[in-house]
Specification:
The protein has about 325 residues and is α/β, with parallel strands linked by helices. Helix content is about 35%, strand content about 20%. The chain contains twelve helices and ten strands. Helix 11 links the parallel strand 9 (about 265-270) and strand 10. The radius of gyration is 19 Å and the shape is globular. It comes from Solanum bulbocastanum (Wild potato).
Length: about 325
């Protein structure tokens, strides 16, 4: 499904069509084939960055795109590693080659500057959660053991951050919780923090922002509900911890102990035009109460994922991420 087709379908009228899927009468879905162009070196259509694709796990059709600022290629500089998990509600037919992500990669990589490793992962409902979490944890072990000369030469493995947008923000959060418990196994890769960009969280009880924006043109409630129905383990509701992090936060007093011991930081980015803004504020407040180092960047206006469509908002976001990574 192209970006143009996705944007032309009103999700309030045709929620499945807006996701690029067809719901069959037996409950299964049909989706178009996702084209997977692959080459060792990507033709460079942005002179500011060099991009390269690498296979992570061919059995799962997992791969990653490495994005490196051109200006460091003739130097001895080592840059922070930002591992990026894209969005799509766990179900959308997006991947690391989706055109709308290219400007995002380049802007963030150049502004920080940093090396971006954008990871592809399996989709629901063919592979329900926690498959996406499993794949993204696997990607960190792949980076740790990489034989790629570019990553080894220019990547500072001691400064790694997990960045995710929407469902990718949810992934960054849950993968962070997992790997904080086994950080020694990832060395020399050392994670320093999480960046949750418009993170896709939910819950059975509706928030005020969800009700205020119930028929939002980007992420209306009916689409959120469908994505959770297709993404969560069969038989689960929206108060499953994968969807509603507050359930686990309230029930596990020691949930963030390893993050605090390792001095991790968490950056939460959102805007008040996003139906998910109240979820972000709720998680942010609880993280602070638990003693986690948290930074927030909340803006007026906007909409879910607005940085992908507004160059100025993207530049502003990249500068916020730069300050966080470089602090």
């Amino acid at each position: 499904m192209s970006d143009q087709i996705a944007m032309s379908i009103d999700p309030n009228v045709d929620p499945y069509g807006s996701l690029g899927i067809i719901r069959n009468t037996d409950g299964s879905i049909t989706r178009p084939q996702i084209p997977r162009p692959f080459s060792i070196a990507i033709p460079d259509n942005d002179s500011s960055v060099f991009m390269k694709d690498l296979v992570i796990n061919p059995a799962k059709d997992m791969w990653a795109r490495i994005v490196i600022p051109h200006k460091v290629l003739d130097s001895e500089i080592k840059l922070p590693l930002v591992v990026y998990f894209h969005g799509g509600g766990f179900v959308m037919a997006a991947n690391v080659d989706t055109p709308i992500l290219q400007k995002f990669y380049a802007t963030v990589a150049v502004e920080i500057p940093a090396i971006i490793v954008s990871v592809d992962y399996r989709y629901a409902p063919e592979n329900r959660l926690p498959a996406a979490y499993d794949d993204c944890v696997e990607s960190l072990h792949w980076i740790k053991n990489t034989s790629d000369e570019l990553l080894k030469k220019y990547g500072d493995f001691s400064k790694c951050f997990l960045l995710g947008t929407s469902a990718g923000g949810n992934i960054a959060y849950h993968v962070g919780l997992r790997v904080a418990e086994v950080s020694e196994c990832l060395k020399p890769l050392e994670i320093k923090g999480l960046i949750l960009h418009h993170a896709f969280f939910g819950g059975k009880e509706r928030t005020k922002s969800e009700l205020r924006l119930v028929r939002d043109k980007i992420l209306p409630l009916n689409v959120s509900d469908i994505m959770w129905e297709l993404g969560l383990p069969i038989g689960s509701d929206r108060d499953h911890p994968y969807c509603n992090p507050m359930v686990e936060i309230r029930s596990n007093e020691n949930l963030f102990d390893q993050m605090k011991i390792q001095d991790w930081k968490i950056l939460v980015i959102d805007c008040d035009g996003d139906p998910l803004i109240d979820r972000q504020i709720e998680v942010l407040k609880m993280l602070k109460e638990k003693g986690v180092q948290v930074v927030d960047s909340f803006r007026e206006g906007g909409f879910h994922g607005c940085e992908f469509f507004d160059d100025m908002k993207l530049k502003d976001m990249a500068l916020v991420v730069k300050e966080f990574v470089r602090a």
